[in-house]
Amino acid sequence: MNKLSKWLPTRKGSNGESALQRSSGVHPMERMREEMNRMFDSFFRDPFAPLELDWPRSFQSLELSPRVDIEDRKKEIRVSVELPGLEPDDVEVDLADNTLTVKGEKKTEESEERDGYYLSERSYGAFQRVIPLPVEVEPDKVKARFKRGVLTVRLPKSERARENVRKIAVSGED
Length: 174
Hints:
alpha+beta
């Protein structure tokens, strides 16, 4: 019995082996420990070598949730969304039931041909951010602008929302 096996809860058969060990000869947790050891060993041998992972390189660098800043100003709500590498045609902005939705997709394709090999990579990623607005806005006056990879949406507050603001007095300890 190896060191790890004594800590793993398993149901033993008549010969003392678990069902998982009988099917493959090695317990799954033992396989995972060996794989982790292999990964750490390869890292410490050459920390600058790329890790051998099972998913594509394009998936590792794909950012699917853009950063959003929301400012509540006196007369408007201002939403800024960082969308580097996208064009205005790649983005869709909707306003319904006091909820702002920003959708888009990013497609990239790279190819390289050199002596003896040809490399072609494609990646695709779609995103959607749904932003509930804290106050009622005037939908007919909303403006969106895309500049240098940043989408800025200006949502003017309704008259009723501007009137409902009250100052609350703050007191110290009693």
